[in-house]
């Protein structure tokens, strides 16, 4: 089951440059929340703060309160533990190039010390099925490298890999930006199904995509959250002039 | 006709004779450079075969040296000694070198890292005989006698900078997105480094290790007063040990024709052993590689 996300006064920096200013919002459980905004507005930084990936960049830091289910992300938990419960899919597909398809999906479990062969087989198959990749790869699970797949397949492999560790939240940082329309369609369909069991936060440059997959949308500009509301409201009757300008294509 | 930024006559112009000529010339120069790289190796190998093959026989590969004046005998103990010393050198030098390379690539983006890099580069330039003296002081004087261990330590010191810089460079080639993928799965940093980053860079790291290995395999100077040499069989790591390079050196500067012939044969065997070891490791490393892996 997914859990809700509550963000309160989140600030983030790269060295001395502030990237996020006092972000506060709530993403409800088992829904998809889209994050939109022009390039460089802090969308990616925002989702990377949710699972503390932000701090893996040298000199980067973040302050504020992020509550994901019962986890207080910036208080009392280790970053490694948090990331086991919050899956992440990146902008560019990044399978482990020297590992087989099977090992890619099993990596999160194996590297955290889970070695039950039969359970692993089940979880790998299930994750690949949920990611709608099973039929395409089932005959070459252990023979082919993850890097030998096409871009769209690689991204679904990365989704399967994230699902295999059974997270409660799935963060997607522009998961379709490197994909063709057919692969994009497959992944959007997938997001629809995943909502039943996960809470999804998806960063996207594509406003149609935001309106197709997400119930809630937040609009970021220059590191600030300008408006957060139901997706429909953001795209039809936004309350802020800047949001309106952006969604109608007047800038950005 | 829409206005174009690039003049159309540029695209339409036929490729001139001059350009085609330059293209051909550049290709020929590159091919010539390849030939010049291969030529010395080919020449050395051919000459070694020409001079040495006649003295290689079963006795040469199975017997210890005969005293001066007696015909026959071989370098079996030196072959074994070289294998022993190189095994010791690799056992010490490869883990330390790879460990240092990991530190430099993953944690060493700071002053200490710069210092280690500089030290490694200087160590790489230290004459091999000086490295031999260091091993003499460290091991031979402490133990009170020459040994295979002392030879191995000397060669290990020579391997470390090459292995560590190669490891560092190969790890830095692994895209950061691969590390992030592991972090995103809740894999700890040390685990990511060993199981993901190092694994992704394996083939490059192996190349670095083999370069270092091949380089020290033929070293003679650092062994002169560490392994010292031995006319008899020795398998103990704390006893003086023969090595092919030492044996070739001793035989080559002797006044006897028979020894000269054996020195050529020994040099040929040494090169063949290096080629064999490097190829075996390459084949073993490729064996597990998956279809489409890069």
Task: Provide a brief overview of the structure.
With 252 residues, chain A is α/β, with parallel strands linked by helices.
Overview of the structural elements:
The complex is a heterodimer of chains A (252) and B (294). By secondary structure, chain A is an alpha/beta fold. Chain A has helices at residues 43-50, 79-85, 101-110, 117-130, 134-137, 151-164, 181-194, 207-213, 231-236, 241-247; strands at residues 5-14, 17-27, 32-36, 60-68, 71-72, 86-89, 169-173, 199-203, 216-221, 224-230. In chain A, helix 3 packs across helix 4, helix 3 packs parallel to helix 6 and helix 4 crosses helix 6 (151-164). Chain A is globular. The model of chain A has no long low-confidence stretch (mean pLDDT 91). Chain B has a domain at 80-243: MetI-like fold. Helices cover 72% and strands 0% of the residues of chain B. Chain B has 12 helices and no strands. Chain B has helices at 8-12, 17-52, 58-62, 76-107, 111-125, 128-143, 148-173, 176-184, 189-200, 202-217, 244-252, 257-287. The mean pLDDT of chain B is 91. The interface between A and B is medium-sized, with 36 and 27 residues.
* Top CATH class of the domain at 5-98 and 167-247 in chain A: Alpha Beta
Q: Please state the overall shape of chain B, judged from the principal axes of the Cα atoms.
A: globular
Largest interface by residue count? A-B, 36 and 27 residues
The CATH architecture of the domain at 5-98 and 167-247 in chain A can be named as 3-Layer(aba) Sandwich
Instruction: Please report which band the strand proportion of chain A falls in: under 5%, 5-15%, 15-25%, 25-35%, 35-45% or over 45%.
Output: 25-35%
Work out the number of β strands of chain B: 0
pLDDT < 50 runs, ≥5 residues of chain B: none
Overall average pLDDT of chain B = 91
Rg measurement of chain A, Å: 18 Å
CATH superfamily label of the domain at 80-243 in chain B? MetI-like
The H-and-E topology of chain A, N to C, reads as: EEEHEEHEHHHHEHEHEEHH
């Amino acid at each position: 089951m997914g859990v809700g996300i509550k963000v309160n006064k989140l600030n983030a920096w790269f060295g001395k440059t502030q990237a996020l200013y006092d972000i506060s919002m709530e993403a409800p459980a088992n829904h998809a929340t889209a994050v939109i905004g022009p390039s460089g507005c802090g969308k990616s930084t925002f989702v990377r703060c949710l699972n503390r990936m932000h701090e893996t960049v040298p000199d980067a830091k973040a302050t504020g309160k992020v509550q994901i289910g019962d986890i207080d992300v910036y208080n009392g938990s280790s970053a490694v533990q948090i990331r086991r419960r919050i899956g992440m899919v990146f902008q560019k597909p990044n399978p482990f190039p020297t590992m087989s398809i099977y090992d890619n999906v099993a990596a999160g479990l194996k590297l955290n010390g889970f070695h039950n062969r039969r359970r692993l087989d089940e979880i790998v198959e299930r994750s690949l099925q949920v990611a709608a990749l099973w039929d395409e790869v089932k005959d070459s699970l252990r023979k082919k490298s993850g890097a030998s797949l096409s871009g769209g397949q690689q991204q679904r492999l990365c989704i399967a890999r994230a699902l295999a560790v059974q997270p409660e939240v799935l963060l997607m940082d522009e998961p379709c930006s490197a994909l063709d329309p057919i692969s994009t369609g497959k992944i959007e369909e997938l997001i629809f199904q995943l909502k039943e069991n996960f809470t999804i936060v998806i960063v996207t440059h594509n406003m149609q995509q935001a309106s197709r997959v997400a119930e809630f949308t937040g609009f970021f500009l220059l590191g600030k959250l300008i408006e957060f509301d139901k997706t429909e409201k953001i795209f039809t009757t936004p309350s802020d002039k800047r949001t309106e300008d952006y969604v109608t294509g007047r800038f950005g | 006709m829409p206005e174009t930024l690039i003049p159309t006559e540029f695209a339409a112009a036929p490729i001139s004779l001059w350009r085609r000529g330059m293209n051909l010339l550049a290709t020929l120069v590159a091919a010539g450079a390849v030939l010049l790289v291969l030529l010395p190796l080919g020449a050395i190998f051919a000459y070694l075969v020409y001079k040495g093959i006649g003295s290689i026989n079963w006795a040469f590969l199975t017997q210890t040296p005969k005293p001066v004046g007696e015909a026959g005998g071989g370098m079996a103990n030196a072959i074994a000694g070289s294998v022993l010393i190189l095994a010791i050198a690799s056992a010490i030098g490869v883990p330390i070198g790879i460990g240092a390379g990991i530190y430099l690539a993953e944690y060493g983006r700071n002053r200490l890292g710069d210092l280690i890099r500089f030290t490694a580069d200087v160590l790489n330039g230290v004459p091999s005989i000086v490295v031999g003296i260091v091993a003499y002081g460290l091991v031979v004087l402490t133990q009170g006698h020459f040994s295979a261990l002392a030879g191995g330590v000397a060669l290990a010191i020579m391997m470390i900078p090459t292995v560590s810089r190669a490891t560092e460079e190969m790890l830095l080639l692994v895209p950061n997105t691969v590390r992030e993928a592991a972090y995103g799965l809740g894999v700890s940093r040390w685990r990511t480094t060993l199981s993901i980053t190092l694994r992704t860079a394996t083939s490059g790291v192996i190349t670095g290790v083999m370069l270092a290995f091949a380089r020290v395999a033929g070293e003679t100077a650092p062994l002169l007063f560490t392994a010292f040499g031995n006319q008899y069989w020795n398998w103990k790591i704390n006893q003086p040990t023969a090595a092919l390079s030492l044996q070739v050196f001793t035989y080559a500067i002797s006044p006897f024709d028979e020894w000269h012939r054996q020195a050529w044969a020994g040099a040929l065997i040494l090169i063949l052993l290096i080629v064999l070891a490097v190829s075996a490791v390459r084949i073993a490393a490729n064996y597990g590689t998956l279809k489409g892996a890069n």
